[in-house]
């Protein structure tokens, strides 16, 4: 609701125009006719003030009736209207008191000295012969001293600004037009000077109250009271319209099912709210999703989310709908959905084995539950997570699998749920096999043997990234005298003495490599089986 719903009446336009003309005439000459004209305008303003007050009283009566019929619906708006009424009355009475005090300061007095002024009397305070007898209507000094020197004009300006801010604070965010109307009716900004015309820049106080005759100042204060009453009237009409602004008119009903989750595990409860949805087929809402307006059909917009990767995805939007009162209401919303990869979990029952001392890679599939919602724990070891992958490091050997249990928990609808457990065995990494030229025994050509660098420790058919390194071995050859000649060495490479001995061996004799030791990546030392090679 805005200014177009509270148009300025021809009478009000005429009064404002007369005030401007008469103020301009004062700059030339404060003639008796001009002063009398101000008195007429002031009297007319007070009559208008009383008329607007009666109109506002009717609005408040309508509020009382609506509240009696539906307290729940009306309470919020009636409370605000009552607050507007109280603030407006406080503002009007403050101006009445300014008038009274300024008239007395200028030397005027009540007709009856024993007369005590009431709020009703204030309507006639500037009318000669009723309540107050104005002593000198063209007094220029008294009003200036009282309003400017004694800072009452500044106090009035602050009161108006405070009242204006209060009214703006209770106007909804969607009604900028009404806010502009309030700010326009209750202006307190300093007027701008004009450099070209040589007009001096003045304050709001000086512009309105400095060097003005008493009757002109009283007339201006009456205009301020009219502005306050008009603002009050606009605000109360707006608040009354808000009672039914949210009472949407719908002409089609339908059922809607809202599940609590799109992912349900076996054994869990599936819950869904079933509601009656209403629709107005005569107008469509505006639906904005992720910052983009979507086409609407039958009151609904269809959102299709991306499913090119797994995870939990959030999306949000805004529904805008025009109320019967013409105000756009906004209704924000947020939703999320889960995307899971098609997967199958396979395992050989007798192969549930972890190796001590190794980083055992471990994968978990929760079916329709995203990996980020899974938690893995275990006994006899620790688990390290890296993204969606897990690494298991057992602590102790457990050949029977009685003390090593892996448990998987899932976060479902905010709850931590156990969804599965399994038992695992813990074994040592198997011993490697010592090899030379890729063999661990048997026949070998002398030429091939003599070009080898040393002895290797190999883990056969073991898929983990784990290796052993030979740290010592002894090479034994048979000499021409039939005796065995041992050549020990530290490390995994043939020494020069060993290489020279291999060159001297004869065909069909045996070369033995014994006392082989190897150290694994985990620091453990293993004794390996000897290698027996027949020279060919």
From TrEMBL:
Domain Gliding motility-associated protein GldM second immunoglobulin-like span(s) in chain numbering: 343-427
Entries under NCBIfam families matching the protein: GldM_gliding
Membrane spanning stretches: none
Highest taxon in the source lineage: Bacteria
Domain Gliding motility-associated protein GldM C-terminal: 430-536
Gene: gldM
Annotated source species: Maribellus luteus
Pfam families, per database record: GldM_1st, GldM_2nd, GldM_3rd, GldM_4th
Record-linked InterPro entries: GldM_Ig-like-1, GldM_Ig-like-2, Motility-assoc_prot_GldM, Motility-assoc_prot_GldM_C, Motility-assoc_prot_GldM_N
Coiled-coil parts of chain: none
Protein name as it appears in the record: Gliding motility protein GldM
Domain Gliding motility-associated protein GldM N-terminal: 33-241
